[in-house]
Design brief:
This protein is α+β, with helices and mostly antiparallel strands and 160 residues long. The chain contains 3 helices and 5 strands, in the order ββααβββα.
Amino acid sequence: MEFIGRGLAFPVRTDATGSVALVGGDREVVESIRLILGTSPGERPMRPEFGCAIHDLVFAPADAATAGQIAYEVRIALERWEPRITLDDVVVGFDAVDEGMLLIDIRYTLRDRNDPRNLVFPFYVIPTHDIPAHDAVPQPGDRLAEVDQRAIAAPAREVS
């Protein structure tokens, strides 16, 4: 357990005694992975190369090519910045409900013991939306727009 060590909790917070919270063991590694993936390169002035370049893909389409690029960027970042793990696999899948969310499944083994783990990190892209054609959107002065305006302005009549 000496190899993993202890460190500041992220986000920085206090514990029940009012001291700065520390984490150790497996939790330290999980928080470190989340910190690496949540930091964009260039975000830290004193360590500009630290982080993962997945943030450059926020506006990329949610497709297989983007998923492959995300897996590559995660692998490169974790192999460089987290020496306490052996990265076994990075699998990127698509969420069935939210078309803008990709799930990054990171499978790793703690180096000081043969203990396989995984961490699922959600990554959000901006989903593409179909923009309606100009003709389909009523414009002021269009006959369809005028009819809609008259229907809104007309009082409702009761049917006897």
